[in-house]
Design brief:
By secondary structure, the protein is of the alpha/beta class. The protein has 18 helices and 14 strands.
Length: 437
């Protein structure tokens, strides 16, 4: 089977590469010529563990092609996945401009039946808009060519995207015809053979499933951050509370870690979009609105803790920040807590020294504030009055506290992910502040 994937971001490139890995002939399309040129040289535009090697392997085997022109491959493919970006508009709604542009391109150039699958995260009802856009172009041409629309939301975690695709917890497929279902069953046959759950449903439910899943995970994070803040006030330890809660089989332990807020390309955008979708239909998502509000407030928790520690006077202070990406194993800094923290510190006149194992180049591209970029974690800590752990990269787990103590001007560690044991730091002559501890 030959398929096309439009969009070579996290979702599109991982999807196309993994489909090629299981034997399909895949053409990945992107309007960014420079990106396509780099991909044809085996250089992935994103950092994702294991992706570079898989791209090179399948490209060399001829199963994975890259092009800027969708129309050049439309006559050869049976399925087109739309995996372009859906950035938030000013009102928080998902911008469907790029999705509908692809739909119009397909309608204007298709010459045989095509199954069009939305892989991008889109609001409920988008499939109907895509179908209408395709049909409008066919009508302009005066041709009658059958096509189907389907929804296949992605559930890939950045940093583990390849594993998530190859060994999925579930594959959700929204269809409206038997023909579309049969094609997708063939497409996902390798996963059916391995007994991974492939769940078919109507398109609207598939579209909603993606938003509902991300909103639930975001809710758990904000809930625990709220609990952690109360633990700080009441003298409880949120880590103990988490263990007690997580042992309940009805709750489980995943996504119950307190911290300095969530970020990334999915949770912030999807939570906002879900709230906006509801408002457009006259309904208030009160829980989800609170989730977003708690998260925005949580992004200032490390700054507020430092401000309290220094009695409101941060003049001439220096802060070391470990970790810039919104989570480990990615260079993605979209909505990262580090961005809010850096701005708060710089606005308060603090000198900020930063280090991240992967995201330094991305940081230099998007951070306007004057910060000092460092080569390693120890350099970042030089003459610092506080060290803030923001992203829990593996290399930050067991640093030499003796070196940190000797390097810093004032040995204060503010743990934004609760990965350190206070007793160990105290034994090494450092002061420790966690979240909810």
């Amino acid at each position: 089977m030959k398929i096309a994937i439009v969009g070579t971001g996290y979702v599109g490139l991982v999807t196309g590469t993994c489909f090629a890995e299981v034997g399909l002939d895949v053409t990945c399309i992107d309007v960014d010529k420079e990106k396509i040129e780099r991909l044809n040289k085996g250089i992935a535009p994103i950092y994702e563990p294991g992706l570079d090697e898989m791209v090179v392997k399948n490209h060399n085997l001829g199963r994975l092609l890259f092009d800027t022109n969708l129309t050049s491959c439309l006559d050869d493919v049976e399925v087109v996945f739309i995996a372009v970006g859906t950035p938030p508009d000013e009102d928080g709604s998902a911008d469907l401009k790029y999705v509908l542009d692809v739909a119009r391109t397909i309608g204007a150039n298709m010459n045989h039946y095509v199954l069009i699958v939305t892989k991008s995260t889109v609001p409920v009802g988008t499939a109907k808009k895509v179908s209408r856009a395709v049909q409008d172009e066919l009508d302009k041409r005066g041709v009658d060519i059958a096509f189907d629309i389907a929804s296949n939301p992605e559930f890939l975690k950045e940093g583990a995207a390849i594993r998530d695709f190859m060994y999925p917890e579930r594959v959700v497929l929204g269809v409206e015809s038997e023909k579309a279902e049969n094609i997708l069953r063939r497409l996902y046959r390798p996963f059916l053979l391995n007994n991974f759950p492939v769940i078919f449903m109507d398109i609207a439910s598939a579209e909603m499933t993606k938003y509902a899943a991300n909103a639930m995970l975001a809710t758990r994070i904000s809930f625990m951050n709220d609990i952690a803040n109360l633990c700080d006030i009441m003298g409880a330890d949120v880590n103990m509370v988490r263990k007690g809660m997580g042992s309940d089989s009805r709750i489980g332990s995943k996504f119950l870690y307190a911290g300095c807020g969530y970020g990334g390309s999915c949770f912030p955008k999807d939570v906002k979009a879900l709230v906006t979708i509801a408002k457009e239909h006259g309904y208030a998502m009160q829980v989800i609105e609170a989730v977003e509000a708690v998260n925005e407030r949580q992004k200032s928790i490390l700054f507020r803790k430092m401000l309290q520690y220094y009695n409101g006077d941060l003049k001439d202070k220096t802060v070391a920040i470990w970790g810039l990406s919104f989570k480990p194993e990615t260079d993605d800094m979209r909505e990262a807590p580090s961005l809010a923290i850096i701005k708060q510190l710089v606005d308060a006149g603090v000198t900020v020294r930063v280090y991240d194992p992967v995201a330094i180049n991305e940081a230099k591209r998007i951070i306007d504030s004057p910060v000092v970029y460092c080569q390693d974690k120890y350099e970042a800590a030089i003459d610092a009055d506080a060290l803030m752990l923001v992203t829990e990269w593996t290399e930050f787990r067991i640093p030499s506290w003796a070196v940190i103590k000797k390097t810093m001007r004032h040995p204060l560690v503010i743990d934004g992910r609760n990965i350190y044991e206070k007793s160990e730091l105290v034994e090494n002559g450092l002061e420790y502040i966690g979240i909810g501890r």
